[in-house]
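cron nightly-structures :: item 1 of 1
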Amino acid sequence: MFGIGIGGKLNFDDGRSVSLLYEDPYKVILQEDDNPSTALPLSVEEFKNKLQSSELQPALDFTPRPTLTEPQIRVRDLRVKYIHTLHQLVTERGLNHTTLSTYNILIKEVEKRHPDTQSANPQLGGKGHPARSTISRWYKTWVQSLKDDDALASKARDCKVRLDSYSESVLLSFLSNTFNGSKSEQKRGHYTAYCEHIERMPLERRPSHIASERTFRRRIDELKAFDHEYESANEAQRNQLLLTLTRKYRQNYALQRVEMDRITLNLCLIDDDTGKATEKVSLLVAIDCYSRLPVSVVVEIGEAENKEMW
């Protein structure tokens, strides 16, 4: 009745709070919230007059907006970059927000306006931008919420952020180049250096996610466990461990990672001047992991102090 159902809350102008206990075409019965044993019967006409005179008003069900957590804010801010750009394309250019052509224009425009999103580009080793259907669903939610950006936040308040392949590659490269060559094992100090390293990177090469300190510590523990296992393994096991480790590193441009290896060949050379055989020949090769091309090749003859290099 009058848009108020059984159990609906109302307030008198004197501050009393009541609930609608019963209604029929002829009368209504109200119940005071502070004194449930007290019933206030009113005729439908009296009830109508009290509403019209504002002596009795429906209580507003005000639910405070929950405060977004840091993971929710991070997800919201990422989605806002796509949705605001898409809305501008729809309103200013008259594009349809669900078509593939609009999606392709959107991705290029987002990467242009927000260089940090370029790390999601598959051509740069990223896992890819959000799918067209996903962005359409976000846009629909945003419009239905009267363009409230907070509606784009994830529902899970403690959602975990999984590092994409490029962010993971930057983390592992930092650990392999910095932590492994350092005498200090203060994880917090290394994590601070890692965050500063990310901030110094150019926007177009900066990863979309920075690993949490917990993830950073876990990666260090994994490297330590690898070193311990490597030291106690035989040659075949070491080769398998190294193969497994290198698969974790993904390169996105040339000279990002260069690896060196040395092999001793079971052969010797004949000296043109003396006509005598040299000692064993070894090759020291530096290879660019991205292009798989050799950067440098050094030929060693002999061992220890007697070796010669070309």
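cron nightly-structures :: done
The first strand starts at residue 9 and ends at 12.
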